[in-house]
Specification:
By secondary structure, the chain is of the alpha/beta class. The chain folds into 2 domains: 10-26 and 121-447, Peptidase S8/S53 domain (Rossmann fold, 3-Layer(aba) Sandwich), CATH 3.40.50.200; 51-114, Alpha-Beta Plaits. The protein has 10 helices and 18 strands. The protein has helices at 62-71, 96-103, 129-139, 142-146, 224-233, 264-276, 293-304, 390-407, 413-422, 443-448, and strands at 10-13, 18-19, 51-56, 76-80, 85-89, 109-114, 155-160, 200-202, 214-215, 249-254, 261-263, 281-284, 286-287, 309-313, 330-336, 355-358, 362-365, 384-387. An 8-stranded mixed beta sheet has the order 9-8-10-7-12-14-15-16, with helices on both faces. The protein is elongated and about 85 Å long. It starts with 9 loop residues before the first strand and ends in a 13-residue tail after the last helix. The relative contact order is 0.15.
Length: 461
């Protein structure tokens, strides 16, 4: 693995107190609607419809078609004058083709089609989604974005306190190193990390009371990294919560100890490890006050040499933006209130902030043993909690980046960051004019922009 030497001032995770969770439930994805060509019978739908929409030429034809429907034995459910359509019931035992054929070709009829079923945009069945996650994810247009992408094929590295690799909402999403033989004490792939089956630890001089970690030991002994991982990629498995990019792969890189502290040496090594193992997005929910040449150089290498986007939290003390979020190559994320349009009181601000995401009342996954320590979880033993902080706004943006890369893997980090900024919803000045950057992320708009490719100098329509 590539090495760069430098000094190592301290870093700390940027987060705040956690509260408890509640449970709820919800449903699954939608279907598209298409009209048949005028004068033709559309293909039969997968399931026999119970009703038919007869589109008439004008409102003047409504009465005649409604009278026709009744005479043919099709009860009229509604006459939609404003949209020039008659909504009729298809009697039991009558096929869709027969029903449509009764109307198509009649004077005043443009076409007939079934009243196709539609549902709200992709709403996961995970029980924590509806009441707890839906309000803030809907404000950032995640459900509509999920109809376009769920992040498949993208690896997101989480540089943090490690990961609970056995968590039921994460176990399916964790990166696996195919070149490493687990537990043999050998660096099989010669990448500088022994037994890194699911990631690597770069934890130098942990604080007293914290376990040392090296090689492939990415055990999360605080819970912060696991929390962040759930925000990004908790599986859509009808259990617990759902992540912003629920089909993405997460690569844990442990660089912080059980108190949430580490140093720039660990951060820089973790950045290099992550990009060398295929991470296209690096989530850094931590920060410090020192401009480390070592970290700045590794961020540049990740950005320019590997085409990876580093997403970092702006900080939680209400002051200036922390490092590495201050670097030009890093997408700096601030936090809004739960309502979504004001600066969260803890969120750092300044011209370096690129975008904001909601950072209050955010659901995350945690190791069960973390509930007796830093986290307060429902029933004292739940694997889920709620938190506030830019630490938890940043992974929402990392999840969006994964959705975008899944749709277009050719996006370079500058283009990716530019799209996230340019599609954000502008925010009011709040208590500081420079708190929100380009605004609150809008996931749907970021995914709706045309993703067209072409050689430089060629015109594209």
């Amino acid at each position: 693995m590539r090495r760069i030497a430098a000094t190592a001032p301290p870093l700390a995770i940027v987060m705040s107190a956690l509260v408890v969770i509640v449970f709820s439930r919800d449903v699954l994805p939608p279907a598209a609607v298409a009209a048949p060509a005028a004068g033709t019978v559309p293909s039969a739908p997968p399931q026999s419809p119970a009703s038919l929409v007869v589109r008439v030429r004008s409102g003047d034809d409504l009465d005649a078609i409604a009278t026709l429907a009744a005479s043919l034995g099709y009860p009229v459910l509604e006459r939609a004058g404003f949209s020039a359509a008659v909504f009729v019931e298809i009697p039991e035992g009558v096929s869709f083709a027969r029903a449509a054929g009764e109307f198509i070709g009649r004077p005043g009829v443009l076409y007939a089609e079934p009243a196709y079923p539609v549902r709200a945009a992709d709403l996961p069945a995970d029980p924590l989604y509806a009441a707890d996650q839906a309000p803030y994810l809907a404000a950032m247009h995640a459900p509509e974005a999920w109809d376009i992408s769920t992040g498949a094929g993208v690896t997101v590295a989480i540089l943090d306190t490690g990961l609970d690799v056995s968590h039921p909402d994460l176990v399916e999403r964790i990166w696996v190193n195919p070149a490493e033989v687990p537990g043999n004490g050998i660096d099989d792939d010669a990448d500088g990390c022994v037994d890194d089956v699911n990631g690597c630890a770069f934890l130098h001089s942990p604080n007293d009371g914290c376990a040392a970690a090296a090689g492939g030991d990415v055990t999360d002994d605080l819970g912060h990294g696991t929390f962040v991982a759930g925000i990004i990629a908790a599986a859509g498995n009808a259990e617990g919560m759902v992540g912003v990019a629920r089909s993405a792969t997460i690569l844990p890189v442990k660089i912080l100890d059980c108190t949430g502290n580490g140093n720039t040496l660990s951060l820089a090594q973790g950045i290099l490890y992550a990009v060398e193992h295929g991470a296209r997005v690096l989530n850094v929910s931590l920060g410090g006050t020192i401009d480390s040449v070592y970290v700045r150089e590794t961020v540049r290498v990740a950005h320019e040499n590997y085409g990876a986007l580093v997403v970092a939290a702006s900080g939680n003390n209400g002051g200036e933006v922390a490092y590495p979020a201050r670097y030009d190559e890093v997408l700096a994320v601030g936090a809004t209130t739960a309502a979504g349009d004001q600066r969260a009181a803890f969120s750092n601000s300044g011209p370096e902030v690129d975008v904001v995401a909601i950072g209050e009342g955010i659901i995350g996954t945690v190791p069960v043993n973390a509930c007796a320590g830093h986290f307060t979880c429902l029933d004292g033993g739940s694997a889920y909690a709620v938190g506030n902080g830019t630490s938890f706004a940043a992974p929402i943006v990392s999840g969006l980046a994964a959705l975008m890369l899944s749709r277009n893997p050719f996006l370079r980090p500058d283009a990716l960051a530019g799209l996230i900024r340019s599609t954000a919803d502008p925010m009011p000045a709040s208590d500081r004019p420079d708190w929100a950057g380009s605004g609150r992320i809008n996931m749907l708009r970021a995914l709706q922009l045309p993703y067209r490719l072409g050689a430089p100098g060629t015109s594209r329509s």
